[in-house]
Amino acid sequence: MKPNALDDAPLSGFHKRLAIYAAGGPFLDGYILSGIGVALVALSPELGVSSFMEGMLGAGALIGMLFGGAISGFLTDRFGRQVMYTLDLGLISVFSVLQFFVTEAWMLLVLRILLGAVVAADYPMASSLLTEFTPRRYRGPLLSMLVCMFFVGAAASYFVGDALVSSGPNGWRWFLLSSAIPALILLVLRLGTPESPRWLLSRGRKSDAQAVLFKVYGSGVSVSDIVVEGSGTTRARDLLRGGYLGRMAFVVIFYTCSNIPVFAIYAFGPKILAALGLGEANANVGSAVLSLLFLVGVVAALCVINRSGRRRMVIWGSLIAGLALLLMGVFPEAPTWILVAAFSTFAIFNGGPQVLTWVYPNELFPTEVRGTAVGLITAFTRVGSAVGVFLVPLALDHLGIGPTMLLAAAVLLVGCLASIRWAPETGGLGLDQASSIAPGIIPADRPGADEQSTRIR
């Protein structure tokens, strides 16, 4: 094999299984996050939920992700990707079941925060593990596939939720409990997943890394074939200074701007569609269709990411999606077909920025701090997303649907401007190259360029 054995290995059944197991986390994220919008329709009258508490419940999982992402990323780099790879799924199952028994809105809010924390914990573990095993040719598409599963989970939550919530007085309780089922299935599937050999080498565990390589690739690969980014020199504190601070800033800005409209629409999709006059009775089904359109967008991005390049995709996707929301904001009472076309355009073209919210964080940081970086980015971006989701019902009540859509458009266009200025191109690079602070990766006049850290790691 070539010197960088993992980057240039052929795609195997192991890689495909690992991608499927890793995709379970985003599926649960989409299912759990989107489900609250469906459940609120029935639980709000029963529990006497105010607009303020609706916003808190919608943002609860995102608030939990703030804490879960920050802590779990560090633990992932300190103790390994595989250690808590299954434990978090058990916790998701427990918290999902407990939602069935709530009698007060504050009880549900606590559980939503806890659910968000454990869902966020899966991000750095699963994505780092997949990134560090996947060959460079397939890294972008497989990481993009994780985003696809978020939208599959979101669409599933609307279909399942619509059926369960309307089934009886406790329908919303059964629906919130239902996320325990895929979590338990995924827990069983993940048992026995090996630790990342890149991480093992970064911790000096050469013999353990060799054992994993032999198990996955056979006797033809040794630890000497692997280029380890950072060579043990990068620490968590480096993420908050120099070139890596610039990369953190860029990813957080574009990630937050891309996610705020998506999370807001998922948390309050039925309410937003009803406000646009697209049919309150069919709002849940309409939200599910919107999820499928998001899925079309990310699948399309997955198929072309290696050809289009990361930078071009994030810029044009943010721009066109923002303009679509701008159209809805300026003409909220436009004919239905125009609103549907605008919503479809937004959903499809935001697919590019969405897939890059998983690709960029995993490519731009070396093995020693990859989990920490992904965790911190997840935490930081959820602050903005949580604020955005919290403000949605208040904006709809006090400003109306038009200004609310204009604010969402402005957020996406800020992400576009940040990408024009700072987005790097990492397509086709090995992890050692993509995660290095080098002028060839991020131009010297952009965040990430550090004249004192230009060596290839």
Overview of the molecule:
InterPro entries: MFS_dom, MFS_sugar_transport-like, MFS_trans_sf. The chain crosses the membrane at residues 20-43, 55-76, 83-102, 108-130, 142-160, 172-193, 244-268, 288-306, 313-331, 337-360, 372-395, 401-420. This is MFS transporter. GO terms for molecular function: transmembrane transporter activity. It holds the Pfam family Sugar_tr. The chain is mainly alpha-helical. It has one domain (5-434): MFS general substrate transporter like domains (Growth Hormone, Chain: A), CATH 1.20.1250. Helix content is 74%, strand content 0%. The chain is built from 19 helices and no strands. It has helices spanning 5-8, 13-47, 51-79, 87-98, 105-133, 136-165, 171-177, 180-190, 197-202, 206-217, 242-267, 269-275, 283-308, 310-330, 336-349, 351-363, 367-398, 401-422, 431-434. Helix 6 crosses helix 16. The longest helix is centred in the first third of the chain and has 35 residues, at 13-47. It is globular and about 60 Å long. Mean pLDDT is 81; it is low at 439-457.
Question: Can I get a quick summary?
Answer:
74% of the residues lie in helices and 0% in strands. The chain is mainly alpha-helical and 457 residues long.
Write the layout of secondary structure elements.
Layout: H1 5-8, H2 13-47, H3 51-79, H4 87-98, H5 105-133, H6 136-165, H7 171-177, H8 180-190, H9 197-202, H10 206-217, H11 242-267, H12 269-275, H13 283-308, H14 310-330, H15 336-349, H16 351-363, H17 367-398, H18 401-422, H19 431-434
